[in-house]
Give the backbone structure.
Amino acid sequence: AKQQGLTEHIGISNFNIELTQQAIDSIGLEHIATNQIELSPYLQNQKLVDFLQSQNIDVTSYMTLAYGKVLNDPALQKIAAQHQASTAQIALAWALQKGFAVIPSSTKREHLL
């Protein structure tokens, strides 16, 4: 697709270390822009994140709000209160501070506003 000019960047999604290495071996590290993986304060997957960062592959985080679980987390609520922020903002800031691109999502229409 890249050679045909159909795309500028190639991303992979939900690839573990082994699959990421296979992709690198198959098309070359320089062609992989990001790996989109589920990450949240509850699911940090540090081993995979460390591997991706060691390869200079950007990390894109989805479901960073852990299906809404972070919204009622007492520890995150305490941190949020200290910073005059919402728990969602704290979770998103956590991911951004880690250097992740973040795709927040919701299954509830009222949360999309």
Q: What stands out?
A: Strands lie at 10-13, 32-38, 58-62, 101-103.
